[in-house]
Amino acid sequence: MDSFGIDALDQLLNNLMKLPGIGRKTAQRLAVFILKSGSEYTSRLSASINDVKQQIRFCSQCFNISEEELCRICSDSRRDRSRLCVVEDIVDIMAVESSHEYNGLYHVTGGVISPLQGIMPDDLHIKDLAARVENNGIKEILLALNPSTEGEATMIYIAKMLNDKDVRLTRIASGVPMGSHLEFLDSATIGRAISARQDL
Questions:
Q1: Which of 21, 65, 90, 177 stands the most exposed, by the fewest C-beta atoms within 10 Å?
Q2: What is the DSSP letter of 75?
Q3: Could you tell me if 89 and 179 lie in one domain?
Q4: Residue 12's domain spans which residues?
């Protein structure tokens, strides 16, 4: 059965399938669960989705998620402000933080360079990275982009862009297999990769 044959339920099914990692069968199970749930739960679920859209913004400095202008990491005076860990997405910050091996600041690029998908450097937060290095006394940049062809190309682009800056460029070491994503790795693997980072 591809659809329920009921417009409201089919619309919910189609919207659920737009979520990453949610296929048709999972979307069907979720739609039926929501249908069977009490109105109190569905009201809370709807309200929490609206709250996320209305109350959460992107940090003006690193592009992490935040309720204020600066995120909790950029606002934390205990962090090492001379180090930046460059990641592709906000979920990668959570993955690196879970390793407990890094105590610097972050910079979220918002993706990787991918000409085939129409994503160019100007579509990402890469120029903002150069400005932070120029103006904030950054001494080390740890490149922790996902190890894909596009991730590699983006790291090379960043390295060339910062070639004339007095900053140490490192990348996470082996332990993160090619083609994998940080959000799916265990914290011990990420921790080892950060501890054994290499100069680029």
A1: 21
A2: T
A3: yes
A4: 7-54
How far is C-alpha 32 from the chain's CA centre?
A: 30
Q: Please indicate, yes or no, if residue 1 is contained in any of the structural domains.
A: no
Pairing assessment for the beta strands 65-66 and 57-58 based on DSSP bridges? antiparallel
Do residue 106 and residue 185 come from a single domain? yes
Identify whether the C-beta of residue 105 lies closer than 8 Å to the C-beta of residue 83: yes
Do 191 and 98 fall into the same domain?
yes
In a structure prediction context, what are the per-residue pLDDT tens digits for the chain, which is 200 residues long?
A: 577 778 889 999 999 999 999 999 999 999 999 999 999 999 999 999 999 999 999 999 999 999 999 999 999 999 999 999 999 999 999 999 999 999 999 999 999 999 999 999 999 999 999 999 988 889 999 999 987 889 989 999 999 999 999 999 998 876 667 677 888 887 877 887 787 777 77
Tokens of 95: 């993955």
For the domain that residue 169 is a member of, what is the CATH number? 3.40.1360.10
Cα angle: 60, vertex 62, 63; to 5 degrees: 70
Q: Are residues 20 and 93 in the same domain?
A: no
Say yes or no: 88 and 170 in one domain: yes
pTM for the model:
0.78
State the amino acid at position 160 in one-letter form: K
Task: Give Dmax over CA atoms of the chain in angstroms.
Answer: 63
